[in-house]
Structure formats: C-alpha cells, structure tokens
Amino acid sequence: MRHKGLLAVLPMLLTLLAPAAPAAAAPAPVQVYGAWHCGDDYCTWSRVRDVAEFDAKNHWLIDRGDGRPSVNVVVLSFVDPLELLHGTTDATTANGVPVGMNREIVQYFTSRGIRVMLSIGGITYTDAWDAALAEDPAGLGRAAAAVAADLGVGIEIDYEQNTGPNLAGLQSFIDAYRSVHPYDATGANPAARLTLDTAAGDRWLIDINRKATADWLRTDTPVLDYANAMVTARPTSASSHIANWQEHLDGKSQYSPPVPPLAPAKLTAGLYIAYGRSPLPECTNYANSLQKATGDWVRNAAPNGAGTTSGLLGYMFWAAEKPSTRGLGTQEPDGCAGGVGAGATSFGVQVPMGPLRQS
C-alpha cells in the first residue's frame, strides 16, 4: 500500500521539482512609426506653404486627439537628386531642395518631437538618380549631407532602378555622406540618420536589395540605419504583406548570386494610408486596420540567419496629404488619427524616437 501511495504522488512531486519553463520573450517595441509625406501637390513640394494652412490639413500628425503626435518620424518626399547635385534654384527649388521643404515645415514637426527626413528620389526621379550617380556620386553625397546638417534632418535613399542600378555610384554617395555624418547608433544626431527604401519583398530592386543587405545593413558593421519595405502596387491582405516582409528576413538563397537574410532590427514594414477614393482602415479605423492585423508578427518576427533579436523596427505609412492625383489623400477633418494615431497609442510608440535596436 505504501508503494501504491508513493506512485500516486510521484507525478505531483516531479511536477513541483521540474524547472520552470522559460518565459516567452516580450514583443519588440514599435520604435519607428512614421509617415511619408507628399505635401498637397503630389510629392513635388513645389510651393511654400503657410504654416496655418499646412496645420489645418496635417494636424493629425502632431495630435492624435489627446495632444500627443500620431507618428515619431515624417519623411518629406521627394527631392530630385540631379537638382540637389546641381544646387538648382528656381521658382520651385532652392539650392536643390523643393521650396516647400523649408525650415518652417521641418520645425513644425521637430518642435513636437517628431524626427524629419528628406527622401531623395522616388519612382519619378529614377532617371535623375542614374544621371546624378553617373556625373558625381560623391558630390551628391556631400550635397545631401550639407542639406541634412542645415535643416537638422535625416536622408532617405529612394533609388528605384530595377535594371542595372549604379551600385558603385551609390556606394560612393553613401561613403561621401558618411564621411560627413558617421553612423550614430544613439540617434542623437538627426543628420546621421541615413536609410534606404527597398521593395515590399525580395523580388524587385533585387540588385539594390542584395547590395544593401550584404554590405550596408549588417548588424556587425552597420552603414545604413535601416531599410523600409515599401508598399505593394495596391493594398493587399495581412497575410500577403507578411509574406513579402518575411522574404527580407529569409533572403533568397536560390538567386545567383544569392540575397542574404536581413536582420529584423534593420527593417520597417510599409502600409498604405491613402489609396483610391475611399478612406482606408489604416487611416481611420485602427480596429480593422492592417497594422493591427499584422502587429503581432511585426513585433515578434524571428531572425532567420541575420540578427539576434526578434521583431521589425516598426511601420511606415504611404502617404500623408496628397500622394496621388487620383486618390482621396489624408485631408479628412481628423486625417488618420483614428488609424495611425490610435495605433501609436496601442503600440505604445515613443515620441521622440529613442535609440534604435542594433542587433
């Protein structure tokens, strides 16, 4: 009978003596939560804006409804790289920068703790990138660095050449920029923030993506701060977006030469907030939005050959105000406070942005 009693309590004793299971890792914080901004003239920024008029159409970016900003970074899009190289000044451009991207607009955001960057390129200026890189890539890098220092902004590289991109020229551009503004893991110097746009997945802009992943986005010897996975041709499902983003983390070993895997801490995920003529949930209804539907994956995506920590850096949204002549834009009375702003609250986004995860 004693043996039977011991056998009866043995499982309980083993359970009590067994080591506790390790706690599940906490989801990574959403550190980058921002919007590309196209102004009110379809990404040209070709006129000086009155700040009060600008605020009436963009107040949601600095106030999600409770006085806190909806985002922690805004990327003003786009600068023509050839005009930047030449320091063009005319009716729409001042020293190579669109006149709408001026100190007053930058300070509208930075005075609220929102980081500002200028995006060089975009699909419209692909030929201009090619021409500038062929003419004087180092000079372009120095010009970008000077503008960044003058305005207190970072720079985004949006070079969308899918066939035969000038990678040697782009390397020279980056080297020249970094000779003025070295990589800064603390994020304390706004002008040291240098990022790159790449495709939603690994099947477009392949050469640029391969070069960036192999040489510029490494966690051991970082050159660029991170890459943005851009939006697809049109909004799709949560599962489709996740599949695209996963491609960056996996790489493409079957390509020749292969595309190496990218560390999750070097990538942000792109979603639309303005597309077509109807408001998107991503802009107006967080509960039904793709950022909510993909949030668990974005914060927990595991490394698969590069990096040591899980979770992407966060989200970038395309695009504030008027990104297209055919679309609604984000000029509704509340803008995207109900989508992006509510997401900032749900994700606990830090404003101002703190130092980014490096591994």
Can you give a write-up of this model?
This protein has 359 residues and is α/β, with parallel strands linked by helices. It has a single domain (26-347), classed as Glycosidases (TIM Barrel, Alpha-Beta Barrel), CATH 3.20.20.80. It has twelve helices and ten strands. The protein has helices spanning 2-17, 51-62, 81-86, 103-110, 126-135, 137-151, 167-180, 206-216, 238-250, 281-284, 290-300, 337-347, and strands at residues 32-37, 73-79, 93-94, 97-98, 115-121, 154-158, 194-198, 227-229, 267-272, 314-320. The strands form two sheets. Strands 1-2-5-6-7-8-9-10 form an eight-stranded parallel beta barrel, surrounded by five helices. Helix 2 packs parallel to helix 4 (103-110) and helix 6 (137-151) packs parallel to helix 7. The chain starts with a helix and ends in a 12-residue tail after the last helix. 50% of the residues are buried.
